[in-house]
Amino acid sequence: MKDLYYSDKERRQYTRIDSVLPVQFKLVDIRNGQYVSGWLQGFTNNIGKGGICLQVNTIDPALSAQIRERKVKLYIEVELSFYRRPIVTHAQAAWMKRIGTDAEKYLIGLRFESLNFPGYAHLMRYVRVKKIFVPAAVVILLSLAAGFFVNAYFNLKLSANNKKLVEQLVLVNQESAAAQQRASQIRDEKERFSIEITTLQSRIEHAEEERLKVAEMAKSNEHKAGQQIEKLNSLIARLNQEKGRLKEQLAASKTEADKASEALLVLDEKKAFLAKANLDKMYEWLALHQNPRTGLVVSFEGDKDLANWAFVYDQSLAAQAYVYFGDFQKAKKLLDFFAVKAKRIDGLFINAYYAADGSSAEYTVHSGPNIWLGIALLQYTQKAKDSSFVSLAEEIAQRIIALQNEDKDKGIRGGPSVRWYSTEHNLDAFAFFSMLARVTGKDEYRLAAEKVLRWLTRHTYDKTDIPILRGKGDATIATDTYAWSIAAIGPERLLSLGMNPDKIIEFAEENCAKEVSFVRPGGATVRVKGFDFAPQRHLARGGVVSTEWTAQMIVTLKIMAAFHQKKGGAAFAKEYLRKADAYIGELLSMSISSPSPSGQGEGCLPYASSDFVDTGHGWTTPKGSSTGSIAGTAYALFAYYGYNPLSLEE
User: Fold this and answer.
1) Domains in the chain: how many in total?
2) Residue 140 CB: number of other CB atoms within 10 A?
3) What is the pLDDT of residues 624-635, one digit of tens each?
């Protein structure tokens, strides 16, 4: 059977859409309006303004003949996925074409009898949307791909620039250290030359005096005197020649010293600029690593065993960094987690949570982390002028006071389930209670602070050979207790207790300051000086520099500088500031680039100069040579800017 058409003018222009719409239809007798068939199945993916192209795969020959002879019209239902009911209308066959080799497989061009049927507008809108969907989708996908590659390019460039900034700082620090060493050598040479010239001048003067005496003797023994004078003249000439040579060396040394001073000045200016730039990047690293869901910050970036762990102490430091930089929204989001979501045990927070979802990472409860969280809440209250967290700070304080009341001497144990006492925890508590008393005006907290101070005096400041014990009955040296004694109690109050803060610093430097080799992530080795967790002689591992505890000592050195400046001791103040600046330079020599893509190569600090070693206090440093530490990085910022977290200041 040949294909049948009515006229070319009746052929419709259709829009091909990228999906198939199911169509069911019945044939209706044109003369009487009666159905002459049951439901038949077809589909379309070609739709025009006035009709559709219907494809039918199977139809009775008698029925196809009626369609071809225009004896029937079609009652059709078109299913649209987004439209709740089928679109229903009548249509007439405009043309009909057999397809394929099957005798009863047809394409039928249908013309809608009316364009006012319900759903027509939806059908046309669907066609228009489908018509532009693929091009639009391609454009969107290409735009997203372009955006991705542009963003990736700029991220790679930013990461490279950040890493370059870190390496520049480390290099300048090394150059500055070498220049300072050379300047020191030149000073020593100048001093040696000056001493030798003075000695030679003294010998010349002595020889000249001898020559005068011999000249007097020449009257009685001219021959003998002449020989002596000749020897003395020869000696004086040699001494003057040596003196001249030394003066030339001294002059050259002075010239070299001037050049070295100029070079050192340039390096110091460059170092100061790079230090500020890198420390600003360190804050950006802290800001980038806040989880948008929980507000928590992963404590260690790079140690797979601690991936996603957010220790409460580290959260306190991160929150205080946000507060110091005026980023109150970030600080509030972090602190809100503890106010609303965090699991507690008997009113106290556990030591660590998972940053991603806030679930518990462990179930240990210690006093120190809770006290430090309280400190962060109060620092936020003071700086942000927002008292919404004071009640939470008081809840923590009440639980700590309950622990305090369990001890006859009013000391605070390490936690509800432990029997040991930590000097550090009690120093933290003294600062926390003092701050809370100031914020609330309540005597209860002032009295709690005084009780802690009496406990500290009785149990940890009672030995002359070791100024500060690690805890009750524990003579182990812990460097942080030396720094925090001054930071929490203050130099003036320590003096009133019979403790000399200068001697505390001196003891810490003599016993805990170490110079070690630090292997940078790229493999280069640099020498750095800082503070160990404990005296090296007590541990088989050798010396280790803790970035956090070194930064704590820098804060303390600046406190001591201000203390002496206030007392009129400008020389002492200058020396303390010199040491603080030197240790900041040492810390920055340990700067590393963030190892994660989200970190964008921003600068940060490792926890210590060696990974996975014993601190001497019951835990090891994290694994990984390029593991970034929240505690080390945040406290380095505190050190640079002179922020004391254990004191509530405007």
Assistant:
1) 4
2) 10
3) 777 999 999 999
